[in-house]
Model the fold of this input.
Amino acid sequence: MSLQALTYVVVGLSFALYIGIAVWSRAHTTGDFYIAGKGVSPLANGMATAADWMSAASFISMAGLIAFLGYDGSVYLMGWTGGYVLLALLLAPYLRKFGKFTVPEFIAERYYSKTARIVAVICLIFISFTYVAGQMRGVGIVFSRFLEVEIATGLLIGMGVVLVYAVLGGMKGITYTQVAQYCVLIFAYTVPAVFIAIQITGNPVPQLAFGGEIAGTSTGLLDKLDDIVAALGFNQYTSGSKSRIDVFCITMALMVGTAGLPHVIVRFFTVPRVRDARMSAGWALLFIAVLYTTAPAVGSMARYNLVNTVQTGEIGAIDGNLAYDERPRWMHTWEATGLLSFTDKNGDGRIQYYNDANPAFADRAAAFGWAGNELAVDRDIMVLANPEIARLPNWVIALVAAGGIAAALSTAAGLLLVISAAVSHDLIKGIFVPGITEKKELLAGRVAATCAVLVAGYLGLNPPGWVAQVVAFAFGLAAASLFPVILLGIFWKGANKEGAIAGMLTGLLFTYGYIEYYKGLFLQWAGSPWGNNVPEQWILGISPEGIGVVGMCLNLAVMVIVSRMTAAPPVRIQRMVDDIRIPRHTGEPG
Amino acid sequence: MSSNNRLAYWRANLRLVAACLVVWFTCSYGFGVLLVDELNQVRIGGFQLGFWFAQQGSIYIFVALIFFYAWRMNRMDQQFDVHED
Done:
């Protein structure tokens, strides 16, 4: 069977599985639709959370990003896992005890305020759409590469599948689909990683191969990598180029942002008990860690493979570089997608890959007769091309395609559900039509989910500038707006309505303003952002990706000051806080 | 349940959370970011220790930390008689 036919079969089977699960577990009540009837086991919820969390970016882009960033890539590894510690210790058990449907609903009741609810819904919708547009784009890219259809067609197919199971199954359908998607994506990620680890180091465990020796030599993989990339003018792989404070702030913004993402938080509403919520966070991170500890190993091996393929002999020797006519087959395949390209700048018919932006290396390059870096590699192809680079059989390539789609669809579905719940439960039932019947609310939820899919599809097809800024925008806003109000809502009884609204708005506006100024999300000055996005211009040397931490601190500070200057929250709210701190249901008014 | 018992339970919880967060901070921001250059002088296997903490070790510790917290808290719920069911 040809690769393309095989890919169609594998991807088709995975779709049939997802839709079958959705039909089997369709939602009958709003409880099913929003939080899967609180009946999900902690283990299954952990798996679903892992699939929900690991997006197209985690599956497709992260290892490639780390391959090119080296040590600086650690911000993503620590940032996107450490947030689960904050979730498990500070938020999940208490929100589960609160026991309602959505994150804005908690904020509304804890801060006895419809205004606070609306501000929270606005934050949630911005965060979630930024995120979901990237997922739809990811689905389109995987389809276009592996099934050779237009990106737009791929996107439509993806939208159709999500529509069926998110609208029909609600949270219940999504949860069990995500369990299946986790299995598909983790298998698809680890199989090629194991084979590549064996080929390079002889050790089948990628996490160990990462620190192992290159097969047949006594040189460590990382040492060898440090040497060769440094000899080509790049930064050493194991040391970074970002400033210490920036690494610190980006990591912190990603961690706190993770803990503040509504589609992640809401997963902990679906388990039966408080103690299940705690355990479930552990399972979730364990399942996530399988991919997140493999990714840096894949990244280092992919970089080693790439450099080694191009630099076949001594650096600077005339025949030290790969002749373009002799390039391996996977390079041909990826050139066709435009994600890999070669320009023969010095006209020698050989590929030179080095850091031409490093002035200290320019003289040496000139002495070698090199006229600039000739190979452009999109970081997204590193994971997708891995099975081809390692010459693995076609079924592995088909599996990687299904895995990439599973990662994107599972995250998209989770996001679409929190958007639809925010519209049908928080806006329609919570604010505009409080007397709505359950049946009508369920219908409203399904209509909202459908609209959200359409908007997400449109944004995926015509991505505006801000969609590309997921890391800065979605995580920065979650860290600066939602996380602090939920945290103080649980841990400080004195936090009141005025404080929460002032704090959220401060965090939101400051963070948005800073990112807007340097990145130009919506507003631009003569076609470019207002600010010059270079380290010398940043406040305290903190990049827009890390500024969410400052936004969070401002939010906390404003909330404490305003709460102290205004009336304390009513006694019933203070009792409610007492109640959510205790796992047992006491029957006291909450 | 008495409000004294509630207060004692909450204080014990806060102590446990604080202790876990100290470990969380130390192994990621401490070993992986602030002290990375110093720790890179030490090697385990083919890894420089600081780099290992930043790309592997901190993640393993996060997982262990959550399970540890869940196990201690679930036991503490019983001790203070505030557990569910």
